[in-house]
Amino acid sequence: MSNLLVAENVTKKFGGFTALNNVSLEIPEGSIFGLLGPNGAGKTTFIRIINQITYPDQGNVILNGETLQPKHISQIGYLPEERGLYKSMKVGEQALYLAQLKGLSKVEAKKRLKYWFERLEIGDWWNKKVQELSKGMAQKIQFVVTVLHEPKLLIFDEPFSGFDPINANLIKDEILLLKEKGATVIFSTHRMESVEELCDHIALINKSNKILDGKLIDIKRAFRTNTFEVGIETPNKMMLRNELSDRFVTSEAFFKTVGDELKMKIQLEQGTSPTSLINYLNGKGVITHFVEEIPSANDIFIQAVKNNN
Amino acid sequence: MNHLLLVIKREYINKVRNKSFIVMTFLSPLIFVGLAALVAYLSQINSDSTKTIAVLDESGYFEELFLSDGNLSYHVLENTTLADAQNLVKGGNTSGLLYIPSVSLKDLSNSIEFFSEESPSFNMIEGLTDKIEKKIFNLNLQYNNVDATKIEDSRVDVDIVLENFSGEKTSKLGNVLKLVFGGVAGYLLMMFIIIYGNMIMRSVIEEKTNRIIEIIISSVKPIQLMMGKIIGTSLAGITQFLMWLIVGGVLLGLVSVIFNVDLVEARMQQPQMLLENAAQQENIDVIAQSLISELFHLPLGTLIASFVVYFIGGYLLYSSLYAAIGAAVDNETDTQQFMLPIIMPLMLGIYVGFFTVMEDPHGTVSTIFSFIPFTSPIVMLMRIPFGVPIWQIILSILTLYLTFSLTVWFAAKIYRVGILMYGKKASYKEIFKWIKYS
């Protein structure tokens, strides 16, 4: 799979403050790429560089094999975190204006807007003024304007904020559909459950440095600790608990079951196969639960940032 | 379509469609004409009301002088003492008592007194003084056996005709016209800068507070957005100005028609004054004719061309600063600290224009200020009607437009950084840092 966007050693300083330090990223074509990091890490600066709102002090950004240049604006759709609309303008003419700025002709923009407005069931808003809309309604308009010119690269910064669960789901499905149609998506958010759901690649930026990137699955594999969550039915839970604690590194486990079994997390030494654990436990009672603990995006985020600090 | 054109179009349409803009466009001339009509009406009422003053002339020089004239009528007292007269006036409804004691003609000049409850109006006292002075002057002439008619005949009005070496003539009236042109042009420019500069600033702040700026700026270059805003708002401003001229002109026409009717009625009631008025009318016609001929004597082409050039240059220079201020702050209340450096040179331009240029259009001060780009649009516009060497005009225009491109560059830098700064309180120090960023 080729890369749609490549950032090479991008550095950006604001006076004495370094917002991005030598950051290199590769964003594969057709992926949903999670751009993660704590507040103030430099994500927005990076996104603004891609949008040519600011320019890097050092380094290159390459889109589709070409160094980033003004003509690429029409190939990028950007939904910023701080977003709004002109309050006194009507929805329709505002959407037309923004679409024309992205290079669409008036006729074409009108046609596509009609399609999208009907699709998101907001057709009757055309002549409404923005100040009459709720926040969620305004978000829908902004989403439409972002995707209207069918850009190759879509950048969403906290796209779900301000949406109720129904509309958030609607937008999520639209994002997945756009990906199906071949768009590449950069997705920046603090909501790790949506990262889990949507992203296939992620990069983690902390304190202006990239500390982690790659396929989400690969990263999860790397962050595995060979820990298993087990449930065993045994007549004497106390005895087994003590026995296990002596033999392995253990901790308490919490999961829902219908029985009254002993629940524990057991961490094996690196390289030890779970088969030996299963064999061992089999002799102690009935195994009702045996799951490898896979780190969530949330765990990875917290752990990586902690280690880095 | 070109991005700049799109931005201009949006700014223009949005401004022109704005309710308060429409209201102001039609209301301002209405208020202006209304006020003018009110003032005219009030002063008419004021001059219509007649006052009576009592006169006690013990000297006997002024018989026949105190017949009622205009809106002042006289109640001439005879055979009474000053004390009695004072008592009479105090209780009655006359506005005062003019007392001329019985002294020699020589001592008369500083022994006449006026008694009243409230201090009398300046105009009335001026009128009385004038009347009495003329009379004493004539009496003095008679006393010295001088023929008054000969004195009148010897009076002349001198009008020095000004002519430059290429043969263009101007008169005093022409000079006044030049001052009026310069004054109006300078004042218009200042008003335009203040009104529409503020409008640009507000429109920049609006984009920041609406949080739409980042969406816009990902498709339009900041400098395009800024120039689009400036040009769009200016076009809206020009539209408003034209509307004001048209609406104001029509209204003024209507009002003056109504007033003319009034005047005719007034004449019918006072047939005596008809003759005087006719003479005045003739006089006005003569003045109007010479005014028009003077107007055509002015280098109109040069004046209009330089007005356009300086107007555009000066306006763009200041409005780019306004845009930069808008970008630097989060809300309108924060703009105060940055307003002074903008208003100061404007005011300076107007003051230098009105005081120095009037006194000496080619003096050192006027010349220097007509080169400084922040004052040159106003000061040079005022100087040009008096004839300025072409090299001075070229130099001044060059400096103006060079500074304009510098301020635009400088404003664009502040703009580019500023529009994406939320919640940061802008200080001069902070802004200086921004300029270094980008």
UniProtKB/TrEMBL annotation, chain A:
Keyword Nucleotide-binding: yes
Domain ABC transporter residues, every copy: 5-232
Pfam entry (one): ABC_tran
InterPro entries per UniProt: AAA+_ATPase (IPR003593), ABC_transporter-like_ATP-bd (IPR003439), ABC_transporter-like_CS (IPR017871), ABC_transporter_ATP-binding (IPR050763), DrrA1/2-like_C (IPR025302), P-loop_NTPase (IPR027417)
Protein's name in the database: ABC-2 type transport system ATP-binding protein
Entry GO MF terms: ATP binding; ATP hydrolysis activity
Entry keyword set: ATP-binding, Nodulation, Nucleotide-binding, Transport
Gene3D superfamilies per UniProt: P-loop containing nucleotide triphosphate hydrolases
Family (UniProt): Belongs to the ABC transporter superfamily.
Keyword Transport belongs to the record: yes
From TrEMBL, chain B:
Intracellular or extracellular location(s): Cell membrane
TM stretches of this protein: 21-42, 179-200, 241-264, 295-318, 338-358, 365-384, 390-412
Keyword Magnesium included in the entry's annotation: no
GO molecular function, one term: ABC-type transporter activity
Record keywords, A-Z: Cell membrane, Membrane, Transmembrane, Transmembrane helix
GO (cellular component) term, any one: plasma membrane
A Pfam family per the record: ABC2_membrane_3
Membrane-topology descriptor: Multi-pass membrane protein
Major localisation: membrane
Domain ABC-2 type transporter transmembrane as annotated: residue spans: 19-412
PANTHER family associated with the record: MEMBRANE COMPONENT OF ABC TRANSPORTER YHHJ-RELATED (PTHR30294), MULTIDRUG ABC TRANSPORTER PERMEASE YBHS-RELATED (PTHR30294:SF29)
Protein name: ABC transporter permease
UniProt lineage: Bacteria, Pseudomonadati, Bacteroidota, Flavobacteriia, Flavobacteriales
